[in-house]
Amino acid sequence: MTFSRVKSAITLKLKRDIKAPVDADLEEALYEALYEIATECEPSELVVHPDDLEDDSSVTVLRSIADGYFIKVPEYPDLSILDREMMIDEELAYPAIYLAITYLIDNEERTAKYSYRAYKTIGAYKANYSKEIS
Q: How far apart are CA 61 and CA 69, in angstroms?
């Protein structure tokens, strides 16, 4: 999902809670959401083969997973590049949006709603898209 779509989705969902957040706040919320998702499941966009670590010293490892593979730290989102894709599997784009919203609003009921949606979709992703790496 492009950052243009991400920004539009978040702005639309936040319009009754707060005015549109500045990009710096939105980027930080998105980064935290991507990081949280990377600790919860194994997004294929973030899986790194051990050989790739030797070839690319700019990769920062978040954690190791099965068969010697790793999950890398997601890139920090740059909303000034609207046509750039968010560094997460498409199936996890909305959970990232929902989690980012929970970091931006101060409404317990709506925070709980978006958190539930995020983790419900993350659970479905883990059940349906987790794959053996070999």
A: 10
Domain ranges of the chain: 3-44+76-129
Mean pLDDT for back-to-back runs of 10 residues, the chain (134 residues) = 94 81 93 97 94 81 93 95 95 97 92 96 90 48
Cross-strand partners of 47: 71
Pairing of strands 61-64, 47-48: unpaired
Neighbour-count burial for 39-51, b at 16+ CB within 10 Å, e otherwise:
ebbbbebbbbeee
Radius of gyration, alpha carbons of the chain = 15
Task: With 0.85 as the threshold, say if the pTM is over it.
Answer: yes
User: Measuring CA to CA, which residue among 118, 129, 127, 125 is closest to residue 95?
Assistant: 118
| Alpha carbon 81 to its chain's center | 17
